[in-house]
């Protein structure tokens, strides 16, 4: 039995040790007067109860003036903290009310028919404090506050069993009602907030799927036209050299690959779809290190002097790592095509057995014959995407200018599965 009591006491102390709210009551209200209102009401309550409580302790209970003033201030002044730190205010008021009850029992001229252990101003102040307490703190803390109130009422009642328990019953019942109603209002408000957040998230997903479908409809048409024109050009135009035929075939193949990747991404973004179907884009093979040769070759066809260097055993590497490496190289080469056409690019992919990591480096130098870039200003989305892909596998990304005016992208992707702490 003693172990059960001690366990309940530990749970009660933990609940009463909850963190204070990080913001004051109505701190995020849209209007300034609403944000100030809780503080104004707290000041009004403290200003009215402070003199009233002192006068009641002096005249009705006959406490000495200094003691009555000290207890009156301790009971009313903490209400000023009710809007910002309600739990701290409750601790002070709770202790002050208990000390007041003991002082009345020891030093009051006579209790007679006066309310004890809780004088009327103490009951009013306690109930006013329970309201912001219930609106800001979780349910378990409110239950602990009410149980502490009940325990104090019972223990004080045992000290003077002959006195009427009216104020004890009144405080216990009314505080429980206020805590219950305030907690219900708070939980309802939180549920509405969660519902609004979920609704906004669902709207975002639906909008993303709509944009993906529209993007597919717009771009797929043009890509299809490019594919058909590139495929049919050798048959429509007479006397095309063999090198031009190969160039048209490369263009058609690149367009088909772009269409395939766009359809796969469209399937990922769709909010509806046939799961488990053979054409599920999420189950389609993802590019990896084996596709880097074709990627570099496509950059060469785009006018970039690109070379690929490999080292280390690349078999059996995690798919997430190889996919991230492929996307980093893809984005880096795309940046070179857009911003530094004609540059010499070196792509290095190495498996570092010592650090159990895959190193990816893309370095481009100044162009031998400078050409006008396709884009003069970048959006930065490419670098953001590379950093995100590196972060998701727990790696490190380093980007910046080289000494000769080129640009360098270097990523170290660990081959071990990253822990939650490494990617957070």
Automatic annotation (TrEMBL):
The chain crosses the membrane at residues 36-57, 63-82, 89-106, 118-135, 142-159, 165-185. It is an enzyme of class 2 (transferase). GO terms for cellular component: membrane. Residues 324-416 form the Histidine kinase/HSP90-like ATPase domain. Its EC number is 2.7.13.3. Keywords: ATP-binding, Kinase, Membrane, Nucleotide-binding, Phosphoprotein, Transferase, Transmembrane, Transmembrane helix, Two-component regulatory system. It holds the Pfam family HisKA_3. Residues 207-272 form the Signal transduction histidine kinase subgroup 3 dimerisation and phosphoacceptor domain. Signal peptide: none annotated. It catalyses: ATP + protein L-histidine = ADP + protein N-phospho-L-histidine. GO terms for molecular function: ATP binding; phosphorelay sensor kinase activity; protein dimerization activity. The keyword ATP-binding applies. It comes from the Bacteria. CDD domains: HATPase_UhpB-NarQ-NarX-like (cd16917). This is histidine kinase.
